[in-house]
Amino acid sequence: MTALYRNALPQLGDALFVTDGGIETALIFNEGIELPDFAAFDLFRRPGGEAALRRYYGAYVRIAAQFRAGMILESATWRASADWGRKLGYNAAQLAEANRQAIRLLEDIRREHRELSMVISGCVGPRGDGYSPTHVMSIDEAHGYHREQIAIFSDTAADMVAAITMNYVEEAIGVARAAQDAGMPVAISFTVETDGRLPTGQPLQEAIEQVDGATALYPVYYMLNCAHPEHFQKVLEKPWARRIRGLRANASRKSHAELNESATLDIGDPAELGADYAALKRGLLPNLNVVGGCCGTDHRHVQRIAAACAPLFRVAA
């Protein structure tokens, strides 16, 4: 149980790193697996569940190998925090073990692929809905809520923490402070709407600057998730956009409300999405080097993204 990169994350250099797509939508729609409350971590207590996750990650490992890229192994723990765990019938000890199991799986994958630079990331999701800030916590509430899960990650081989689908700034600050308490590097990924703003209406630049100001620039970088590139490219400006190093976009151009109401999965155009990523790297997001997907994306999208972006990077060590 060793964190290899906690003190020197390799993706802070200039090589390409791939991560996965929309794990929950891929498992539900592509594999026919039922995930109550989108809780992928629940697979660890089901027969064949860990094998399904191994297959899922394996597709992305092959993409990283194909393009000689590094990889961010994001744990299946987006829903593995206290409120969601209780809703699914987990007590505190069972939930803690599920978080540890998720990291152990990624440790196994890393040991099996020593030829690749693989960073293990403990995924933290929002306390509420990933699209809508239904209950806005104070910074102190968010810090207290997320501290337990992040502390568990700190005692595992996780190299960092990633807060995915943060949709209001107080929760992002609370997560960052909890990560700092635990001595864990943290990346903050914001959900944005079709206008490029957070679901609260706050401009993206203002949100990033507020988190940086409240945490003394503690996040190692920021990411954007769960929106099509055309939704946010219009609000990106240098120099503040240089803080954005990761992108987990949707291939669908639909709004979050439209996606919620849709009975089918909109996978968009993987090749077009790849071209959009490359254009952002060449222009508005010069530091972009962690690429993956969000709702409705899978290995097909990430393969096209990596193919479009790889010529813009040196080979990962």
Summarize the SSE layout with pairings.
Blueprint: E1 17-18, H1 23-30, H2 49-66, E2 70-74, H3 82-87, H4 92-112, E3 118-124, H5 139-154, E4 160-166, H6 169-182, E5 186-191, H7 204-215, E6 221-225, H8 229-232, E7 244-249, H9 256-261, H10 270-282, E8 290-293, H11 299-309
Parallel strand pairs: 1-2, 1-8, 2-3, 3-4, 4-5, 5-6, 6-7, 7-8
Helix pairs in contact: 2-11, 5-6, 6-7, 10-11
| Integer count of domains | 1
* CATH class annotation: Alpha Beta
Helix-strand string = EHHEHHEHEHEHEHEHHEH
* Fraction in helix: 40-55%
Number of helices: 11
CA radius of gyration: 18 Å
Strand content: 5-15%
Give the termini separation.
Answer: 23 Å
**What name does the CATH topology carry?**
TIM Barrel
Catalogue the unreliable spans: none
Number of E strands: 8
CATH level-two architecture:
Alpha-Beta Barrel
Shape: globular
Specify the biggest β-sheet: 8 strands, parallel, barrel
Structural class: alpha/beta
Mean pLDDT: 94
Structure write-up:
Helix content is 41%, strand content 13%. It has one domain: TIM Barrel (Alpha-Beta Barrel), CATH 3.20.20. The radius of gyration is 18 Å and the shape is globular. The protein has an 8-stranded parallel β-barrel with strand order 1-2-3-4-5-6-7-8, surrounded by 5 helices. The chain has helices at residues 23-30, 49-66, 82-87, 92-112, 139-154, 169-182, 204-215, 229-232, 256-261, 270-282, 299-309; strands at 17-18, 70-74, 118-124, 160-166, 186-191, 221-225, 244-249, 290-293.
